[in-house]
Each structure stands twice: as structure tokens, then as C-alpha cells.
């Protein structure tokens, strides 16, 4: 049994993973309601909330599962993320490791996301990677936009990443410009329903297939200049069109680069992960792209797209031959890259 601990940003999460049964329990506390009034995550408040929430979650987990008698390893997010938040999770994991006399393993949060599309396969087949490698993955969240390849041995090669803002950040900030509270992306998606996605010609950066990069800062600026040209009444009248066009511009860039990668090499599967994976338009367009290329489309369950401890425990299980278990030397890395 592996106990997963996640605290990279504003989600306090625990999960219990069995090498035979998969995820057997999850306990999570979201801080979104706490940070809404500030328009984003406030690190100091997030740390304070983690310090309170983890004790509550641990008590809840202990009531359901006798963790001390069942856990054989603890997997904790060691980066990237907010330094104070990572420190709380790491301290909890190390303390429990000492109390229960079990090893503590540091897990790359981005690697957890990258592997999460394979989590639903765990109950279907013994080897989740069988017939799915090489795998083309797209990780889209509020902090990261990365297109990558997974080969045999689960080695990861980054094919493209954003040079400025992440796609999720661009959707949230675009929502803010349109008067939508944090986090704006999911609400913007709802307002886009019924709107004309081609009503406004917002920019798509790096459209040439030779430029394997993403950029979303110009998209936000374009929306700002467009809104400045309209009165409040005009914005209200074209609101659905603005939301749909802005969202489509972001998604077009993601899908185009994924298509370019597919055309440059052979892949057996396409995966979508990260918080923005819940966007229905992005999900359906990548699924259609996979079908057109006759490769399998993989995505985690909606509850495992955002920050969660299940993907951390699962990554520790998958990487059990790669990870180190020297808890005394384990520390956090706020700027850790996907490897």
C-alpha cells in the first residue's frame, strides 16, 4: 500500500493506492472558496490551510483505513509548486514515515500528471503501458502547458512547452477580463456554449509546424484590446461570442501543436492531463484527432485531472524502480521540471 500526499498548491490531498486493487481511498480538501475573494491563490493562506486541513484528512482516512498497519510506503509531491505548500506536505510525509517506520518517496508532481491518463487502465490490464507506447501526452494546467513523449522504460522527452503563460492561466485571466471570478476557465467554458467560436479572430501563436512552442500572453493582450473597443452594452450583447472565440483560440493552438507532433513521429496513444483536461471542447477535439490517426485516446477520470494524491501514489508505483527512498535527504524543489 502506498499513501500519496499532495500539497503543491491549494489542494490538500491524501490517497491510498494498492498494487493489486488500485486506488482504495481518497481524501481531499479544496481551498478554491478561500482564495476566490483574492482573485487567485495567496501562498501564505494556502500554507495555513494545509496545516489545518491535513490533520482533518488524516483523521478521516484513519477512520476508514488502518493506515499505520497497511501503508508500506509514503509518496509525497516534492515539486514543482509553492515552496511553503510543498514544505507542509513533505513534513507530514516524513513525520508519518518516522512514526510508521516506512520509506518516504519524493514524486515529481508533473510526472504524476503525465502518468495519470494511464490510471484508469490499471483495473483493465496488468501492464498499463502495453500497446500504448510510444505515448504522446499533453499536460495543460494553470501553471504548465507541455507536450511530451513517453517511451519504453517510461522515459519522458519534452517536445514543446509554453514560452510564457500556461493555457490554464490564460483561460483564467481571460475570464477575469470578462468579469468572471477566479478560477475563470471553467466558468468561461460555460459562457462559451452557444457562442460563435469564429466571431473574433484572436491570435494563434507559432502556427508553423517547425516552431514547437506554445505562447498565450498575446492572446490575453488581444482580448484586452478588443474589449477596450466596446461599450459595456456591446460586450454584453456579444458575450458568448467573445468567450467562445477566446477559448477556441487557446484550444486551437493546443490541438495544432499536438497534430504537428503526431505528423512528425509514430505514436500508439494520445493522453490529456492537467486541470484543463476537464474542458469538454479540448477533450473532444483531441479524442477526434486520436480517432483520425487510429491511436487510442487516454485521459484520467475528471476527479484526477486537477491536483490530487492518487496520481502521486500511482506515479510512485509505476516508478518504483526509479525512485530513491532516502527520506533524510528528501527536500522540495519549487521549480522542478518534467522528467
Summarize the structure in short.
This protein has 339 residues and is α/β, with parallel strands linked by helices. The protein has 12 helices and 10 strands.
What attributes characterize this protein structure?
339 residues, alpha/beta, five-stranded mixed sheet, 12 helices
Could you characterize the architecture of this molecule?
With 339 residues, the chain is of the alpha/beta class. It is built from 12 helices and 10 strands. The strands form 2 sheets. The protein has a 5-stranded mixed β-sheet, sandwiched between helices. A 5-stranded mixed β-sheet has the order 8-7-6-9-10, with helices on both faces. Helix 7 (184-192) packs across helix 10 and helix 10 (239-264) packs parallel to helix 11. The two termini are 25 Å apart. The model has no long low-confidence stretch (mean pLDDT 95).
Amino acid at each position: 500500500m502506498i499513501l500519496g500526499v499532495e500539497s503543491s498548491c491549494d489542494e490538500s490531498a491524501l490517497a491510498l493506492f494498492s498494487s493489486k486493487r488500485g486506488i482504495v481511498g481518497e481524501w481531499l480538501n479544496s481551498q478554491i472558496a478561500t482564495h476566490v475573494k483574492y482573485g487567485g491563490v495567496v501562498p501564505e493562506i494556502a500554507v495555513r490551510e494545509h496545516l489545518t486541513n491535513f490533520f482533518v484528512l488524516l483523521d478521516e482516512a484513519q477512520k476508514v483505513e488502518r493506515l499505520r498497519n497497511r501503508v508500506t510506503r509514503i509518496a509525497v509531491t516534492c515539486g514543482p509548486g509553492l515552496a511553503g505548500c510543498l514544505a507542509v506536505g513533505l513534513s507530514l510525509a516524513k513525520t508519518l514515515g518516522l512514526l510508521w517506520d516506512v520509506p518516504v518517496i519524493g514524486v515529481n508532481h508533473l510526472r504524476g500528471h503525465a502518468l495519470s491518463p494511464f490510471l484508469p487502465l490499471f483495473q483493465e490490464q496488468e501492464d498499463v503501458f502495453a500497446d500504448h507506447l510510444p505515448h504522446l501526452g499533453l499536460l495543460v494546467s494553470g501553471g504548465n502547458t507541455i507536450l511530451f513523449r513517453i517511451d519504453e522504460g517510461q522515459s519522458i522527452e519534452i517536445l514543446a512547452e509554453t514560452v510564457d503563460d500556461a493555457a490554464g492561466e490564460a483561460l483564467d485571466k481571460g475570464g477575469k477580463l470578462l468579469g468572471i471570478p477566479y478560477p475563470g476557465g471553467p466558468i468561461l467554458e460555460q459562457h462559451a456554449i452557444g457562442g460563435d467560436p469564429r466571431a473574433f479572430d484572436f491570435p494563434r501563436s507559432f502556427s508553423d509546424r517547425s516552431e514547437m512552442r506554445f505562447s498565450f500572453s498575446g492572446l490575453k493582450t488581444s482580448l484586452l484590446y478588443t474589449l477596450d473597443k466596446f461599450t459595456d452594452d456591446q460586450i454584453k450583447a456579444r458575450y458568448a461570442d467573445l468567450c467562445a472565440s477566446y477559448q477556441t483560440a487557446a484550444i486551437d493552438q493546443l490541438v495544432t501543436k499536438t497534430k504537428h507532433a503526431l505528423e512528425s513521429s509514430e505514436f500508439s496513444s494520445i493522453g490529456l492531463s492537467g486541470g484543463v483536461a476537464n474542458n469538454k471542447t479540448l477533450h473532444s477535439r483531441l479524442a477526434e484527432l486520436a480517432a483520425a490517426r487510429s491511436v487510442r485516446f487516454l485521459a484520467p477520470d475528471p476527479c484526477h485531472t486537477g491536483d490530487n494524491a492518487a496520481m502521486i501514489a500511482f506515479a510512485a508505483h509505476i516508478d518504483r524502480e526509479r525512485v530513491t527512498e532516502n527520506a533524510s535527504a528528501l527536500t522540495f524543489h519549487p521549480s522542478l521540471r518534467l522528467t
